[in-house]
Amino acid sequence: xxxxxxxxxxxxxxxxxxxxxxxxxxxxxxxxxxxxxxxxxxxxxxxxxxxxxxxxxxxxxxxxxxxxxxxxxxxxxxxxxxxxxxxxxxxxxxxxxxxxxxxxxxxxxxxxxxxxxxxxxxxxxxxxxxxxxxxxxxxxxxxxxxxxxxxxxxxxxxxxxxxxxxxxxxxxxxxxxxxxxxxxxxxxxxxxxxxxxxxxxxxxxxxxxxxxxxxxxxxxxxxxxxxxxxxxxxxxxxxxxx
Length: 242
Fold this sequence. Notes:
Layout: E1 2-3, E2 13-20, H1 21-30, E3 40-41, H2 46-49, E4 51-57, H3 64-78, E5 82-97, E6 129-130, E7 136-137, E8 143-148, E9 151-159, H4 161-172, E10 176-178, E11 186-193, H5 208-216, E12 218-234
């Protein structure tokens, strides 16, 4: 996935490790890495499975819209990518609040800074805290999605429901829209059986749908949505040389 770039601590470069062309197409032409495969049509299967390494220096002051244009040019020049856009109505999910209400709380406000902020602690990497199941606990604001011991754990701090819906889109491979009417930011922890997990009767892990309802008080309802999709007209698997 991407490291550095506009609005990060290192805006002078962008690096993508083992990134699929499908993800690059979604980022370059839709501006959304969470868009699922439903957003990219007529694409060969390898567009999702083949990974590529991309590293580039950026001119000072590069913005995300400008970076998207650069990525579009790179895909066209190196992979001979030709696409066009269409509007399409597809199957989706609506994220709604269950009948008993949400089972999570709004995020606490950040404490006001005191003094100069110099605690006297030595500089270095912060210590990672783990919970009782061995999953790292993110520092606010933060998020982690980790699969371990047959379970996938999503830990989100200060997340709004629209962002949660985008995360679920990525997990389910189908668009999820926020219909909760919840407007705040929340701390959310969600744990479900990984796709390849084999659960035991003594410790069964719920699937994602059941986990949402049991742990968060949210449900996914089948719906339809109209989205902008990218149709791949032509792409070459082997990129041209620099």
